From TrEMBL:
<comment type="function">
    <text>Murein-degrading enzyme. May play a role in recycling of muropeptides during cell elongation and/or cell division.</text>
</comment>
<keyword id="KW-0456">Lyase</keyword>
<dbReference type="GO" id="GO:0071555">
    <property type="term" value="P:cell wall organization"/>
</dbReference>
<protein>
    <recommendedName>
        <fullName>Membrane-bound lytic murein transglycosylase A</fullName>
        <ecNumber>4.2.2.n1</ecNumber>
    </recommendedName>
</protein>
<dbReference type="InterPro" id="IPR026044">
    <property type="entry name" value="MltA"/>
</dbReference>
<dbReference type="GO" id="GO:0004553">
    <property type="term" value="F:hydrolase activity, hydrolyzing O-glycosyl compounds"/>
</dbReference>
<dbReference type="Pfam" id="PF06725">
    <property type="entry name" value="3D"/>
</dbReference>
<feature type="domain" description="Lytic transglycosylase MltA">
    <location>
        <begin position="142"/>
        <end position="275"/>
    </location>
</feature>
<dbReference type="InterPro" id="IPR036908">
    <property type="entry name" value="RlpA-like_sf"/>
</dbReference>
<dbReference type="GO" id="GO:0019867">
    <property type="term" value="C:outer membrane"/>
</dbReference>
<dbReference type="GO" id="GO:0009253">
    <property type="term" value="P:peptidoglycan catabolic process"/>
</dbReference>
<dbReference type="GO" id="GO:0008933">
    <property type="term" value="F:peptidoglycan lytic transglycosylase activity"/>
</dbReference>
<dbReference type="GO" id="GO:0009254">
    <property type="term" value="P:peptidoglycan turnover"/>
</dbReference>
<dbReference type="InterPro" id="IPR010611">
    <property type="entry name" value="3D_dom"/>
</dbReference>
<dbReference type="Pfam" id="PF03562">
    <property type="entry name" value="MltA"/>
</dbReference>
<keyword id="KW-0961">Cell wall biogenesis/degradation</keyword>
<dbReference type="InterPro" id="IPR005300">
    <property type="entry name" value="MltA_B"/>
</dbReference>
Amino acid sequence: MNRHAYWLAAAVVGLAGCAGNPEPVKVPQKKAESGCFLNCEIPVNLGKQYLDGALPGDLVRVERVNSRARADYSKFGPQSRMVMERSGRMASRYGELYRQLSRWVANGGNPAHITQYGISLAQLGGADRMGNVLFTGYYSPVLEVRHRPDAQYKYPIYAMPNCGGRCPSRAEIHRGALANRGLELGYSKSLIDNFLMDVQGSGFVHYGDDDRLQYLGYSGKNGHGYVSIGRVLIDRGEVPKEQMSMKAIKEWANRQPEESVKELVEQNPSYVFFERRPTNDVVGAAGIPLLPMAAVAADKTLLPMGTPILAEVPLLDKAGNWTGKHQLRLLIALDVGGAVKKGHLDLYHGMGEKAGVAAGHYKHFGRVWKLGLHHGPTAAPWL
């Protein structure tokens, strides 16, 4: 999707709304779905609220936003301008909506006044049909690699092969099924870091032999089913389920011999292939560079690419615990994910280890409103 330049007229700044959140509501403990990857146990309180009554659908028409959360809209301007510059199709569909949202933000960004700017609202019902939408997080790792293997940098990252059908499994690839075919994009020194970039689906590599940073984008998969190694570690009693996280997996792997790590990751036969991208922009499925805390992966049957949403994002502390507060943000749906369906959003956190730690903590809930205009291509966002 080619883009052409178009700048929003209004400057967008971060503005605080009314102080305070409602008292947090305690949520009963329950187990997560068996297909989870990292956080395989849902703690008691993950930010669920019960403020709007029953919402009997994926998208429900509402007349107002009932929120007292503080706001930060500062990332919407840069991200929406990126959309306008890069996509003529999305600029045509969403340009006027972005402009009206920018006017609303410039005039205070009070959620109680958003409909005065010609904005229509549809609230996401969430899986519980009470408005609680699951927020997870993702990021772009940075992996140290070399162009050629040596005694330390020996774990290859592969480009997409021509398999003529289903490609080899992870274990078969580890045994050399793709070796010496010119598919190696680089070699890392960490099998578990390769695996975690595989799970993210893209990432940066730093070639230490010529000091070059390269973005590797998703190219395809081998066609085998996905198995959660987090669940495997829990089932084996290696990591307590309440402590399961990306950090816990890495710490476990760093304590183990190479063969134990290889045996674990080979429990997941699915394997992702990569390709070098011409720029170091982190680009989502919509073809638009993603900005941290501004873009989400979403179910495009509910939120087509380019759709702006108003979201109460749960605020976490450094340990990943919900602080009891949410923050209103204007976000744009610019990516998709295989596990991101219906009442689930995956919030992009940025690049590097710090972003990865923050993203790995997210398994919390917030309320979300899909936005449209009263007239035009985005009218009736509940449909």
